[in-house]
Amino acid sequence: MENKSYVPLKQPIIFQLEGFIVPKETAHLLFALSLLGYLATLTGNGVVCVAIFAEKSLHKPMYVMICNLVACDLLGGTAMLTRLMSDFLSEERTITYVAAIFQAFSMHTYGSATQTILSVMAYDRYVAICEPLRYHTIMTKGKLVGLCLTAWLIAFGLVLILFVMNVTTPLCGTLIVHVYCSNRSILRLACHPTPYNDIYGLVMTWSLSTGSFLVIAFSYIKILVACLVVRKETNKRKVIQTCAPHLVAYVIFEITSIIIIMSYRIPEISENMKKFCSILSIILPPIINPIIYGLVMRDIRVNIIKLFKRKVVPNQ
Prior knowledge:
Elements (H helix, E strand, L loop, with lengths): L13 E4 L6 H31 L6 H29 L4 E3 H34 L4 H4 L2 H24 L10 E2 L6 H5 L7 H35 L6 H28 L7 H26 L1 H15 L4
Parallel strand pairs: 1-3
Antiparallel strand pairs: 1-2
């Protein structure tokens, strides 16, 4: 830190968000795009969720897990896009300490839970395809609830520890040089170095990323072996329909995460572009995931069409 004065700030602390540095006319356009993106997030995820809840035949582990991913996407999309819209309309981009911590907690929970939920979904696909005769014995209601709770608790618990460690950290600055509040952006305002917080954050990020990759890689290698090597009587078309959306969702999340790292390694990229790249992993998956699941997965697509037909017919 370059703070010359080590006099900690006292509550209530009001942070100043730098955000995107754009003219007022451009800010209004970006507000409209953010609003459009948020409406797409709410509509897409809402339709998928309603289609699953309305059809009893979809009350199966795979679809319940999709609903968990929907909840996760809505958490991240809402925490990010609502704040973006507010900042684009306001000249004073201020945020209270409590609101900043809440947004940062939501952002980290979204990122962590996305990985744990996708891991659980990969395990479910592995059991369904590699152990079809034992699937209902293994994936009982109790097991399903346990897996979903575990996915959320791991993410929530790790992030909670991260922020508990920051509670006693004294702050000497108020300018957050970012589009949104995160653990790292807040710790940059600390009066002194925070090595333990930094180490824990890095270990947590590495553990989640590596752990989810290993689970997903193991599951799909087993599925590939079952389909191509063992030559079990598997419906390969159905396998593709159920596995492709999950893999695409995971790949999109990972690619957008890699883009964040790459953007900060290229000095030629403008600061606004770097900030835009840093929010891609939070705003893109919540918009694209429901489209992927709604179009590729036949059962969801059919029930979405049924929902719209039910609303159209009474008006005829």
